Q: What sequence folds into this?
């Protein structure tokens, strides 16, 4: 019953984020889980998600189950709804912007059924926590262009995302003016082909030049600060 | 008294000679207290007044002997008191202008005699006797100082029970009381003074600005602050000056005089040393302290004073208007009242003072009319007072409070600490001109764009900030217009503030910009002034490697001047930077760390970069060593990344100026790696390695190590590439130092380096020449090389260099020419080129090193020249010049000149000339020395000079013999030989023999006879035989 060990008895201890997640939840429910079914599920997910170890996947699955909070439901059909997911984003990853949290939810929800399956959960988190720059690039771009079907981030969308980025000392008109200028500044910086919108190629090029631009329109990845607490010695273990 | 004098009295800045007391009311008050104490002493304590001081108080007096009357023996220039001590010494002795006083009784009398000049005498006395208590009571009383309580004193009384010490104790207690009295008194003085306030100063300046400009009617042409930045407390002075109470500095251009640079401080307003060439302000006070800006300007500019009175009415109106909102009618009444009084010049002046600049004070203090009158009368009193006492008639100003005095002392120490940093930091230290872009000037478009971005930095959330930061980076930040634009629109403050936030992205973005713009010297200073360094030093602790990197790189850019380096150290930056070097040790890099992270090696590289900048200060070198930096640097030196090696070697090279480092460098086996990197492709790396070797090769073992690790060959090879002058200078430097070892010289000859060096004697910058010539000087100690230098035609360019002015170069050139001159064939060339005359004229060089080196070089020249005697005589005034150099106080010069004289004296005619110039007494005067080098050459010179006339006798008469005998006790065999020879020559004279015998020469010489050195043996034996013969002769004479 290694999977149930809430304490870190296993030598290959999962990374801090996961430990943190797990510690937050009462995983009593998971005792009721069928270890065989769990094992099978973990096995199948591990085949597609390479950046987590099996033990980590297992923990994530258990966590997912805990979040769903329906101990009787079968694992593979359990779904996480949007509000719970946003709670996770806010509580664990320090996100604050409602709009962006929704967008992140949609980016996780690959099959657009408005809820997140265990597969989507593990996959999403793999990008979220362990993603390579390329994966994160794609993820962020998806978050930002979400509303447009054409695969571009349009001027209007940028305006929408930056709307709250100035402090409200000025009148509404002035703020609007300020935001519009900011949008222009952003486009000038990122719109390499000068078509008034940002394509993935534009985005990729800009970010490769300056990584700070990865989350250019607002936070959509775990907060850097959280990672700060990661003790050095853990880095060497995986 | 001691405490009061030490702590309270305000001395002028330490300058040349004795320090003087400053003319401040506080000092004057203290002085008066002391006078009162001393004057009444004779009446109050007649018993103690007779006590004779351990040492007399001495000073220069202005009193005329004629002022003394009964009780004194008076002559034209001296006065003695009739009162005297047990030994018959007078208790007061005046020999114009020195006066010595040895009792309180006499001191009292003297003050009575001095009458009106009392204050002056007292001041001179205090200035002349910085530690009066020690002089009066003896040193042991002084050592107890502040801690000395009554208990301590009582303890002493019980210990010695005689009357003398009882009186002493009584006096000690009296002085102690005086001390306490003085302290109390000065406290009273201080509490009366009202410091200026930043707001008041600001208001003054604003008003003056209002009335400044072109035209005849304005009071000033211009007035402006030196710094646009205002700290939250209203001050503009940099923080480390603020603790001295300084508020701001203003540049004032009156109509009729030059621009004045004025310091406004809490104590008052005074002229400072003005802007120095490097645009920093010379904070030193010049002249008196005025109570406010207007008073100061009135004193300095007549035109200001005139126009000021014209403007007066308008001024007052404006003032009133300004004050209206928060002014009570009660306050307005007196000012109106004042206005009504039609006054003399004096009252008008006062009126202005009061109205002007006081509005703020009144706001603070809400004073009554009463208060004002007290201030005025006090002012009045002090000025009158000063006039009476013959001091400079200047309105003197409030002085420092006790607490502040302490502060000043503390900060003084701090400043000293800053100043004490090493000298290797000249290049970057000049303060750049601080040109701010004028608001109306044509501004580049970048200026407005940057201003807009800064607006987003200020008013945006994290997302907007990051966007603004990213697009700011797209400007050409290497361009000065952009750098200054960022600063001028207030961007620096925001960027530095961002470093204090929690957001990693903002920090990274901000640091990236700071890193770029801190290449600008002005920006560096602004960053330091805004307190950016402590924050960056803190970031070095961050777990984010890229943050660490950026912070370290920015520090590397900023720490290019002394104050910044001090700040880095002061905030613990050195230890943290050294810790960065350790990062590269975790070789197992995490597979995937944070997105924004850099690699460990990069962290170490940035750390090394920052240390490189910091290591230009001596104290930082020490700090790096203490933090364990050397082993880490040694370890990093084993890597093969050029980017890493350059800063590492750069740091080592910078630090190798310290003895400690050189030892550590040897111990850590760093030389091996330095040598290895000489073979690198990178010119900069080669340069730094060569430079480090240059520094370290002062040490013999290191020179051997360089050879053993095969470093000489690459050095010789690098000589052939002369395009990069910096590198060439470093390489030639390394060759110079290495060639101090003979084995290395042999190697260099093998590698044909000597020929190449000769080729470098022309068309090279001085830095290269110094080293090339230095190296040749070392190489030419060997015969083969001297021949090579001649054959390659090196002598002509060397002699040509004798006319230079670079001191270091001259020292080396003279040495090289001297080394070449050892070869007669070389000497012929030198003689033909008139090199000896050039060498001789260098004896007139002001630098002692050059003088000495030239004199040394002359020795082989005289030895090897044909017709040397004739040649020497042909230099008009040359011999007199040489003899006069014996009056120098530099040991090396003396030794070298003695050596030259030894050679000159070998020619009889020349010996006669130098004898006429008084060489004998001058040499004799030098005889009492402990310096073995000087002893040796002096003894040689004496023995050569004995060969003329009655010089032998003259040496005896000038008491040169006895000291010479003592030379025999030296440990240096060369000294023994030279001395024995000199004594042998001197022993030809009977009187000298007697002196030698009396000083125990025989026994010492007997030892020398047993020496393996033949010359020594012979000379010692000869000397003994002369002495013995004399003894026999005397005996014989006695018996016949």
A:
């Amino acid at each position: 019953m290694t999977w149930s060990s809430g304490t870190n008895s296993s030598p290959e201890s999962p990374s801090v984020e996961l430990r943190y997640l797990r510690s937050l939840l009462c995983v009593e429910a998971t005792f009721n889980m069928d270890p065989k079914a769990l094992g099978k599920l973990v096995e199948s997910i591990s085949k597609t998600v390479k950046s987590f170890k099996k033990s980590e996947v297992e923990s994530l699955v258990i966590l997912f189950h805990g979040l769903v909070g329906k101990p009787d439901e079968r694992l593979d059909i359990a779904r996480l709804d949007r509000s719970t997911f946003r709670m996770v984003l806010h509580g664990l990853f320090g996100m604050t912007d409602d709009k962006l949290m929704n967008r992140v939810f949609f980016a996780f929800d690959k099959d657009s059924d408005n809820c997140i399956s265990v597969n989507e959960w593990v996959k999403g988190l793999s990008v979220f926590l362990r993603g390579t720059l390329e994966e994160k690039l794609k993820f962020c771009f998806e978050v930002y262009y979400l509303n447009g079907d054409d695969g571009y981030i349009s001027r209007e969308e940028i305006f929408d995302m930056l709307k709250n980025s100035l402090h409200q000392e000025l009148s509404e008109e002035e703020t609007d003016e300020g935001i519009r200028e900011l949008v222009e500044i952003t486009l000038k910086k990122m719109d390499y082909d000068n078509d008034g919108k940002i394509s993935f190629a534009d985005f990729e090029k800009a970010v490769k030049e300056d990584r700070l631009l990865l989350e250019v329109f607002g936070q959509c990845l775990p907060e850097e600060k959280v990672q700060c607490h990661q003790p050095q010695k853990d880095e060497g273990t995986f | 008294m001691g405490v009061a004098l030490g702590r309270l009295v305000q001395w002028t800045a330490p300058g040349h000679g004795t320090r003087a007391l400053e003319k401040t009311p506080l000092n004057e008050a203290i002085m008066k207290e002391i006078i009162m104490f001393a004057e009444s002493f004779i009446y109050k304590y007649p018993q103690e007044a007779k006590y004779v001081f351990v040492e007399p108080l001495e000073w220069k007096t202005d009193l005329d002997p004629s002022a003394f009357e009964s009780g004194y023996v008076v002559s034209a220039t001296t006065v003695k008191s009739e009162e005297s001590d047990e030994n018959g010494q007078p208790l007061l002795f005046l020999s114009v202008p020195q006066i010595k006083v040895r009792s309180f009784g006499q001191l009292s009398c003297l003050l009575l005699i001095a009458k009106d000049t009392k204050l002056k005498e007292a001041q001179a006395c205090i200035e002349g006797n910085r530690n009066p208590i020690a002089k009066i009571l003896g040193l042991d009383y002084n050592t107890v100082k502040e801690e000395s309580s009554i208990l301590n004193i009582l303890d002493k009384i019980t210990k010695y029970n005689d009357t003398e010490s009882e009186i002493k104790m009584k006096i000690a207690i009296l002085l102690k009381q005086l001390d306490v009295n003085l302290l109390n008194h000065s406290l009273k003085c201080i509490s009366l003074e009202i410091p200026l306030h930043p707001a008041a100063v600001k208001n003054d300046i604003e008003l003056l600005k209002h009335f400044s400009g072109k035209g005849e009617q304005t009071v000033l042409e211009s007035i402006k602050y030196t710094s646009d930045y205002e700290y939250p407390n209203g001050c503009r002075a940099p923080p480390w000056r603020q603790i001295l109470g300084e508020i701001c500095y203003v540049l004032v251009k009156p109509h009729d005089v030059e621009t004045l640079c004025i310091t406004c401080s809490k104590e008052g307003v005074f002229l400072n040393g003005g802007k120095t060439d490097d645009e920093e302000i010379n904070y030193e006070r010049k002249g008196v302290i005025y109570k406010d800006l207007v008073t100061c300007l009135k004193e300095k500019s007549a035109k200001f004073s005139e126009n000021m009175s014209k403007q007066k009415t308008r001024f007052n109106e404006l003032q009133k208007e300004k004050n209206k909102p928060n002014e009570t009618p009660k306050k307005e009444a007196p000012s109106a009242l004042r206005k009504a009084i039609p006054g003399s010049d004096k009252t008008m002046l006062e009126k202005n003072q009061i109205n002007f600049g006081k509005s703020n004070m009144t706001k603070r203090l809400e004073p009554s009319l009463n208060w004002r009158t007290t201030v005025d009368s006090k002012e009045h009193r002090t000025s009158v007072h000063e006039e009476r006492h013959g001091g400079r008639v200047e309105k003197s100003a409030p002085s420092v409070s006790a607490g502040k005095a302490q502060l000043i002392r503390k900060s003084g120490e701090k400043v000293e600490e800053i100043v004490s940093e090493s000298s290797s930091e000249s290049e970057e230290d000049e303060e750049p001109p601080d040109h701010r872009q004028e608001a109306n000037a044509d501004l580049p478009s970048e200026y407005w764009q940057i201003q807009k971005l800064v607006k987003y930095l200020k008013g945006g959330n994290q997302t907007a900030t990051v966007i603004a930061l990213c697009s700011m980076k797209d400007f050409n930040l290497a361009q000065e217009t952009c750098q200054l634009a960022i600063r001028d629109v207030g961007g620096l403050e925001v960027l530095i503030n961002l470093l204090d936030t929690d957001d990693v992205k903002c920090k990274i973005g901000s640091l990236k910009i700071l890193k770029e713009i801190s290449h600008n010297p002005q920006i560096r200073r602004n960053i330091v002034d805004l307190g950016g360094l402590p924050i960056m030093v803190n970031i070095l602790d961050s777990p984010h490697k890229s943050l660490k990197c950026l912070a370290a790189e920015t520090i590397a850019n900023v720490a290019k001047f002394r104050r910044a380096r001090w700040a880095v150290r002061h905030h613990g930056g050195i230890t943290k930077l050294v810790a960065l070097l350790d990062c590269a040790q975790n070789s197992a890099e995490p597979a995937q760390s944070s997105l924004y992270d850099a690699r460990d090696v990069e962290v170490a590289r940035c750390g090394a970069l920052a240390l490189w900048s910091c290591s230009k200060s001596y104290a930082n070198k020490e700090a790096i060593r203490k933090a364990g930096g050397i082993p880490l640097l040694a370890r990093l030196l084993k890597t093969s990344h050029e980017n890493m090696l350059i800063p590492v070697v750069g740091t080592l090279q910078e630090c190798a100026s310290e003895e400690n480092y050189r030892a550590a460098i040897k111990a850590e086996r760093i030389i091996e790696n330095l040598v290895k990197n000489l073979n690198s492709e990178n010119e900069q790396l080669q340069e730094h390695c060569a430079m480090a070797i240059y520094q370290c090769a002062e040490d013999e073992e290191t020179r051997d190590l360089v050879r053993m690790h095969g470093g000489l060959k690459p050095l010789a090879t690098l000589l052939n590439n002369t395009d990069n002058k910096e590198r060439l200078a470093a390489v030639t430097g390394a060759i110079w130092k290495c060639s101090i070892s003979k084995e290395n010289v042999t190697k260099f000859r093998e590698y044909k380096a000597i020929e190449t060096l000769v080729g470098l004697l022309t068309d090279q910058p001085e830095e290269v020449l110094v080293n090339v010539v230095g190296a040749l000087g070392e190489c030419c100690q060997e015969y083969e090389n001297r021949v090579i230098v001649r054959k390659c035609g090196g002598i002509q360019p060397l002699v040509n260099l004798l006319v230079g002015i670079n001191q270091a170069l001259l020292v080396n050139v003279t040495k090289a020419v001297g080394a070449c001159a050892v070869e007669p064939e070389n000497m012929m060339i030198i003689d033909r080129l008139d090199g000896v005359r050039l060498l001789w004229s260098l004896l007139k060089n002001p630098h002692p090193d050059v003088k000495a080196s030239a004199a040394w070089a002359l020795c082989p020249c005289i030895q090897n020249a044909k017709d040397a005697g004739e040649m020497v005589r042909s230099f008009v005034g040359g011999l007199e010049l040489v003899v006069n150099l014996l009056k120098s106080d530099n040991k090396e010069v003396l030794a070298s000149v003695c050596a030259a004289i030894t050679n000159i004296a070998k020619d009889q005619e020349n010996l006669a000339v130098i004898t006429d110039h008084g060489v004998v007494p001058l040499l004799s005067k030098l005889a009492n020395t402990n310096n073995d080098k000087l002893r040796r050459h002096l003894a040689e010179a004496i023995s050569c000079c004995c060969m003329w006339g009655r010089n032998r006798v003259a040496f005896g008469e000038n008491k040169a013999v006895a000291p010479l005998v003592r030379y025999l006790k030296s440990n240096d065999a060369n000294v023994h030989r030279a001395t024995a020879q000199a004594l042998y020559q001197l022993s030809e004279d009977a009187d000298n023999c007697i002196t030698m015998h009396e000083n125990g020469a025989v026994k010492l010489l007997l030892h020398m006879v047993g020496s393996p050195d033949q010359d020594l043996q012979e000379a010692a034996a000869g000397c003994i035989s002369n002495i013995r013969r004399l003894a026999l002769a005397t005996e014989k004479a006695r018996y016949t």
